[in-house]
Design goal:
The chain is an alpha+beta fold. The protein has a single domain (4-198), classed as Gcn5-related N-acetyltransferase (GNAT) (Aminopeptidase, 3-Layer(aba) Sandwich), CATH 3.40.630. It has helices spanning 35-43, 47-54, 63-70, 118-132, 147-155, 185-198; strands at residues 4-6, 14-18, 24-29, 77-84, 89-99, 102-109, 137-143, 159-160, 167-173. The chain has a nine-stranded mixed beta sheet with strand order 1-2-3-4-5-6-7-9-8, with helices on both faces. The radius of gyration is 16 Å and the shape is globular. It starts with a strand and ends with a helix. The model has no long low-confidence stretch (mean pLDDT 93). It binds coenzyme A (COA).
Length: 199
């Protein structure tokens, strides 16, 4: 993937990443103004992806959920949003601090973009920002049998707890090696820092 930071007119600044299949996607911190894009992106997900992400059948998001998912302080709660080149919301990677140096991380990628390395790039970018804010570990909760998420967590060196009531928990330490080959890392950090300053 090759990065290229861009900001055109009033469009928010993004970093462009190229996926394994050569498609380009644009990454930036998710914003309050992304409510509609988030709702549409959720609608575009398969039933299975919604289920895997929210750990139960979820047909729609309530207004309160959308507010929670789009209004962040970018320090204890941060999310990267990803859009395709035609502006559709295709992925979100989020952490929410749950302790002094630990956060829960969650990933949602449009089905048409699974298996192209986007999950890994987002995990790298999310870990990098989290570490800037003193977070040393990610906890990740997934439905037992979510092989893609298990593989993603395993790639980050996660250790797994035994499945409990249908869910599996993974915990990964966040050493800098995780994002050492992330294209556009410096540009992504700038975008994250600007979002935190703007609050
Ligand atoms: C889980 C999820 C985030 C994975 O994202 P992804 O972009 O498909 O994952 P990647 O392509 O980055 O793959 C990461 C690693 O997992 C493995 N992997 C992922 N999908 C795979 C598949 N279908 N078959 C085999 N291996 C796969 C690969 O080993 C890959 O490592 P590699 O890059 O060295 O090949 C994505 O499938 C998703 O959004 N699912 C729906 C929501 C969800 O399940 N969220 C998890 C709960 S928070």
């Amino acid at each position: 993937m090759t990065p290229s930071p861009s900001s055109i007119g009033t469009r928010p600044a993004t970093v462009t990443l190229r996926l394994r299949d050569d498609r380009a996607v644009r990454v930036r911190p998710l914003m309050r103004s992304d409510r509609e894009q988030l709702i549409e992106g959720f609608r575009d997900l398969s039933e299975d992806s919604r289920y895997q992400r929210f750990l139960s059948p979820t047909a729609r998001l309530s207004g309160r959920q959308v507010t929670y998912l789009t209004e962040m302080d970018y320090i204890d709660h941060f999310a990267w949003g990803v859009e395709s080149t035609d502006g559709a919301g295709i992925a979100i990677a989020r952490y929410v601090r749950t302790g002094r140096d630990v956060a829960e991380a969650a990933f949602t990628i449009n089905d048409a973009f699974h298996g192209c390395g986007l999950g890994w790039r987002l995990l790298q970018a999310l870990a990098m920002v989290a570490a800037e804010h003193g977070i040393r570990r990610f906890e990740m909760t997934m439905l037992a049998g979510n092989k893609s998420m298990e593989r993603l967590a395993r790639k980050a060196g996660a250790v797994f707890e035994q499945p409990d009531g249908g869910t599996t928990r993974a915990e990964a330490a966040l050493p800098p090696e995780i994002w050492s080959d992330l294209p556009g890392a410096a540009e992504l950090l700038c975008l994250a820092a600007a979002a935190a300053r703007a609050g």
